[in-house]
Design a protein that fits this description.
single chain; alpha+beta; three-stranded mixed β-sheet; plasmid; Putative flavodoxin
């Protein structure tokens, strides 16, 4: 899903390990996304966000994805 969002926004998609304040400084919009594992965002994403400095005023969004075991592939629109 992150790749699709970055394509639509003509933006770069980075892993949590690649993200730092320098990479986000010039961004107009920052998105954070992860699969949901046992009702939580991935720990790598949480660690990434916790090490960022205060970015008050920066536009941002968060998205999460989840699935059900045995539900099979489905697309919702």
């Amino acid at each position: 899903m992150g790749a699709v969002i970055s394509d639509v926004l003509h933006a770069r998609s980075l892993t949590p390990q690649e993200v730092g304040a320098a990479e986000l400084a010039d961004a107009d919009l920052v998105g954070f996304g992860s699969g949901i594992y046992f009702m939580r965002f991935d720990q790598a994403l949480l660690d990434c966000v916790s090490r960022l400095p205060d970015m008050a005023g920066k536009r941002a969004f968060v998205f999460g994805t989840s699935g059900l075991v045995g539900s099979g592939p489905k697309v919702s629109r």
